[in-house]
Amino acid sequence: MADRNLKVQLLLTGNEIMSGDTVDSNSALIARRLGEVAIGVHRKVTVGDDVALLESELAAMADDADLLIVNGGLGPTVDDLTAEVLARVTGVAIEEHPQALAHLERWCAGRRLTLNAANRKQAMLPAGATLIDNPIGSAVGFEVRVGHCRVICTPGVPGELAAMLDGIVADLARRLDRPLERSILRLQTFGLGESTAQQIISDNIALWPEEVELGFRAGAPQMEIKLTINSAAAIPTRDRCRQQLEALFGDHIIGEGDITLAARVLELLRERGATLTTAESCTGGLIASMLTRVPGSSDGFHAGFVTYANSIKHRVLGVDEQVLEHEGAVSEPVVRQMALGAMACAEADYAIAVSGIAGPDGGTPDKPVGTVWLAWGTRDELRSCCLRWPVERTLFQTMVAAAGLDMIRRALLGIESEPKYFGQRRV
Predict the structure, then answer these.
(1) What end-to-end distance do the CA atoms of the chain give, in Å?
(2) Are strands 130-132 and 141-146 parallel, antiparallel or unpaired?
(3) Residue 100 placed within a domain
(4) How far apart (Å, rounded) are the C-alpha atoms in residues 113 and 64?
(5) Is residue 2's pLDDT more than 50?
(6) Which terminus of the chain, N or C, has fewer Cβ atoms within 10 Å?
(7) Is residue 261 part of a domain?
C-alpha cells in the first residue's frame, strides 16, 4: 500500500444494479474521491447476488489487485451476501462482532426501533475483520486481508457510502509514501457541450501546459471543466489556464465547485435583495423544485405557479382567454402574460415563465415537439424567446428549466450578449 501506483479494483454487488432498477452512481463517487489523492481505478466489475459467482470473482480480483473496494451487500436481507462471501474466501468463520452489534443497538435506540433478527444479521462478520465506521447507517463497513490484497467493504446506500469515504480516502492518503498536493479546480458551465468546448480550446490555445490536466464531465444540464495539478508549484500555471478559459467561455461559466444554476441565481438575488417567481407549464414545477433544493432558497424565491391547463393560466395568472384561443398556449404573448401575472400574484421582482411541447405527442407543423417559449426578467424589462430542444420529454424539461434559470442569471448579472446555445436552439 506504500506504492502510489497501487492497483485498485472495484466490485459492485446487487441484482438491482444488474437489472437496471438501480443506477450505479457509487462507482463514480468512489473513483472521484480516490482521484483526489491520485489513486486511479484499474478495473470495475458488477456481479449479481449469487454466492458462487461472488466468491469466484472476489477471489480472482483480490489475487490481481493491491486494493479491492467492495460496494453493496451489507444490509439485513437474505440477498446481502458480502460478509458471508468474504468469510468463505478468507477461510474463517462468520461471527457476531461485538462492536458492530453495539453500533446497531445505538442506531436502533436513536430511532426508537427494536433490534430484530434481520438487523442483527449486519453484525455477523468474518472473524478478525476490522470495522469501518458508518456515521449515518445501520451497517458498518469492514476490512479484511485476502493474501496481499486489502479488501474494504462498504454499504450500497449512496449517502452512507459518501459519509464513509472521507475516512477511507484519508487513511489511504496517509499510507502513501510522499505528501500529495493534488488539487482539482472545477468550473461549472451551462450551454456548452464537451466537443464544442474542446474544439474552442484547441483552436485558441496552441500549447496546453502538461502540468495542468484538462478534463470534462458532461451532465444534464451542466458541464464541468476540470483543471487538475499535482503540486503547488503548478498553481500559477493553472491560474493562467483558468483566465484563458474565462476569456473563451466567459458568461457560460456559472461558478466553481458543485454550484448549480439555481444556487447561483439565489446568490445573485440575495446580493440584490430581490425576489423571483416562476410560472411553469411544460416543466411542471421543475424550475421551482431546482430552486427549493437549495438551502435558504426562501430568501429569494417566494412562490411558483404550475399552470398546466389553459383555464388555470387564465384563472390564476390572468392570461387573456382570447390570446390563449388565437395564439395557443405555446406562444410569446402567453408566456409574457404568465410572467407578469406571476410577478403580480407573488409580488416578486423577477419572473421566469415557460410554455412548450414536451412530447412525445402534441406537436404541429408550426410548433413541433420540443418547441418552448420562455419569458424572463422584470415588469419593466421582460424578454422572451422561442427555442427548440427535440429530445425526449424528461431531458427537454431539464434543459428548458435550466435555460430559464440561466437567462435570469444573465439578467441579474447585466449580461447583454446571447448565450451560444441560442444560435443552435432559437426558432
Answers:
(1) 58
(2) antiparallel
(3) yes
(4) 42
(5) no
(6) C
(7) no
